[in-house]
């Protein structure tokens, strides 16, 4: 259980340079948000300037939708350990951690040394190299469902390749996905299907609804090549699947000849061996990404030999899978080094235990203040929701917000601004995660920031959710 550390949140500890003026009681959500946004704009002229300059070349000044938030995102200048410094010199405890890829914190000496060695020995060798030999063995050891695997450059690519391999092997075309899923920017379903999605026929099912998923698999078995699932929906807000749901899908996929693909791009970090090991499930295929290249651009997909053998280039009619940087030397070298030196079962358990403690403490705090707020997630990944009652899937979130979408959006934005003002960097969608470098004291600082929000904004939370009149 995490201890609360009074006074850690705020400028008195030198943790942030921004003005954390005490909020006035009895403000409306609208005026509180306007004031918070004004304060944010005033404190961050350097980021605003960079955003304006970038807009000449990048649509909206942005090349990565995930990191954008209005009125302009913070531009980060540097990172060290568990901290980030922005373009205006403010320091933050990093709870974004590159959306889980930054598992090692910033400039970890082990990673820095590996990258230095890779660069010194040449990085564009145009041939197989020693790194991929070692890294593939280390990954296979940890994720035995990947009887054979291939590297690529991102989680997006890994998922597209896994689905394509399953479709090629089965001769069937459709893939089952779940409302709210994020499998990369070319296959995302967080607000229905994205218009950018690859034109793969989709069967949409409901997360954590075993009866519906099993029925959907059965009814569509003739055309279903694969079932693609995150064992915890990450960008939807850290919503874990129940073991019962995942086992039901495993059984139904086997019975009806669909390849079960676990997208563990995000969740492989929450347990040594990923959530598949935690739940005792062997998927047919697995996709990975994020931190496993030591924080360098990385992706991997693999699975049953019967499917992956199709990529064996010594065989006639082998599947063609090139990719200039599939075996890029920096990621392979850094990946091997972090597997050997940083990603031990003990280190992951400590980081994930710290995350469990923080989530438990956050939920305890919401109970103490009797507020409709909850932290979801597992291990080192969590999401914060303004919601009363169970949260099994995005439909539950939408149902809770129905009719009050503008107020809920304003409340989340206010929380985000207040946390930033207190020196805590989290995402606008209110998901967060820890790195190996996040300390207990920093978790306590996070908790203190949330408590300050509860104290100052408790009535606004209740009003936004319609529990008291606004
Ligand atoms: C579950 C999941 N799958 C796939 C991806 C896409 O990975 P990438 O951003 O490396 O393409 C992400 C990225 O956040 C993810 O969370």
Say which molecules are bound, naming each kind only once.
pyridoxal-5'-phosphate
Mean pLDDT: 94
- Percent helix range: 25-40%
Q: Pairing-aware structural class of the strands and helices?
A: alpha/beta
Order of helices and strands: HHEEEHHEHEEHEEEHEHEEHHHEEHHEEH
Radius of gyration, in Å, reads 23 Å
Instruction: Categorize the overall geometry.
Output: globular
The largest sheet, given as strand count, sense and whether it forms a barrel, is: 7 strands, mixed
Q: In angstroms, what separates the terminal alpha carbons? A: 35 Å
According to DSSP, the number of beta strands is 16
pLDDT < 50 stretches = 3-8, 10-23
The side-by-side strand order for the widest beta sheet comes to 4-12-11-10-7-5-6
Number of helices: 14
**Strand fraction band?**
5-15%
Summarize this entry quickly.
The chain is an alpha/beta fold. Helix content is 40%, strand content 15%.
SSE topology sketch:
Blueprint: H1 29-43, H2 45-54, E1 76-80, E2 83-86, E3 91-94, H3 109-120, H4 130-142, E4 148-152, H5 155-170, E5 174-178, E6 202-205, H6 210-219, E7 224-229, E8 232-233, E9 239-240, H7 243-255, E10 259-263, H8 274-279, E11 285-289, E12 299-303, H9 305-308, H10 329-341, H11 345-368, E13 373-378, E14 381-386, H12 394-401, H13 405-421, E15 424-425, E16 431-433, H14 440-464
Parallel strand pairs: 3-15, 5-6, 5-7, 7-10, 10-11
Antiparallel strand pairs: 1-2, 2-3, 4-12, 8-9, 11-12, 13-14, 14-16
Bound molecules: pyridoxal-5'-phosphate.
Write a structural description.
The chain is of the alpha/beta class and 470 residues long. Helices cover 40% and strands 15% of the residues. The chain contains 14 helices and 16 strands. The strands form 4 sheets. Strands 4-12-11-10-7-5-6 form a 7-stranded mixed beta sheet, sandwiched between helices. A 4-stranded mixed beta sheet has the order 1-2-3-15. The protein has a 3-stranded antiparallel beta sheet with strand order 13-14-16. The longest helix is centred in the last third of the chain and has 25 residues. The chain is globular, with a radius of gyration of 23 Å. The site of pyridoxal-5'-phosphate has 15 residues, from helix 5.
């Amino acid at each position: 259980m995490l201890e609360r550390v009074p006074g850690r949140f705020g400028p008195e500890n030198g943790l942030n340079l921004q003005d954390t003026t005490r909020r006035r009681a009895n403000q409306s959500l609208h005026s509180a948000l306007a004031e918070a946004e004004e304060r944010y704009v005033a404190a961050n002229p350097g980021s605003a300037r960079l955003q304006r300059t970038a807009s000449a070349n990048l649509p909206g000044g942005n090349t990565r939708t995930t990191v954008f938030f209005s009125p302009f995102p913070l531009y980060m200048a540097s990172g060290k350990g568990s901290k980030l410094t922005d373009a205006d010199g403010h320091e933050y405890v990093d709870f974004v951690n590159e959306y889980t890829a930054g598992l090692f914190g910033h400039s970890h000496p082990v990673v820095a040394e590996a990258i230095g060695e890779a660069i010194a020995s040449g990085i564009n060798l145009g041939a197989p190299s020693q790194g991929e030999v070692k890294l593939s063995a280390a990954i296979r050891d940890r994720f035995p469902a990947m009887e054979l695997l291939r590297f690529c450059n991102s989680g997006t690519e890994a998922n597209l390749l896994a689905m394509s391999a399953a479709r090629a092997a089965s001769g069937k075309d459709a893939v089952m996905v779940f409302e709210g899923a994020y499998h990369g920017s070319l296959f995302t379903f967080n607000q229905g299907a994205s218009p950018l999605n690859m034109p793969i026929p989709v069967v949409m099912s409901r997360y954590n609804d075993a009866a519906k998923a099993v029925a959907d698999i059965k009814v569509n078995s003739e055309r279903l090549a694969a079932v693609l699932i995150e064992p915890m929906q990450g960008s939807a807000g850290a919503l874990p699947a129940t073991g019962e749901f995942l086992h039901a899908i495993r059984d139904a996929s086997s019975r009806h000849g669909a390849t079960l693909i676990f997208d563990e791009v995000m969740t492989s970090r929450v347990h040594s061996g990923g959530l598949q090991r935690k739940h005792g499930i062997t998927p047919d295929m697995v996709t990975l990404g994020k931190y496993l290249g030591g924080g360098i651009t990385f992706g991997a997909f693999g699975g049953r030999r019967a499917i992956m053998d199709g990529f064996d280039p010594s065989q006639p009619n082998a599947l063609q899978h090139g990719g200039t940087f599939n075996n890029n030397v920096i990621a392979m070298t850094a990946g091997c080094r972090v597997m050997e030196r940083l990603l031990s079962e003990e280190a992951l358990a400590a980081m994930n235990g710290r995350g469990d403690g923080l989530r438990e403490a956050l939920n305890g705090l919401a109970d103490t203040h009797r507020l409709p707020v909850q932290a979801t997630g597992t291990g080192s990944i969590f999401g914060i929701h303004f919601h009363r009652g169970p949260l099994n899937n995005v439909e539950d979130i939408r149902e809770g917000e129905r009719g009050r979408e503008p107020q809920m959006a304003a409340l989340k934005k206010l929380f985000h601004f207040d946390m930033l003002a207190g020196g805590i960097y989290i995402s606008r969608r209110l998901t967060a995660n820890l790195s190996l470098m996040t300390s207990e004291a920093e978790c306590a600082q996070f908790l203190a920031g949330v408590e300050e929000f509860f104290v100052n904004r408790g009535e606004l939370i209740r009003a936004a959710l319609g529990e008291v009149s606004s």
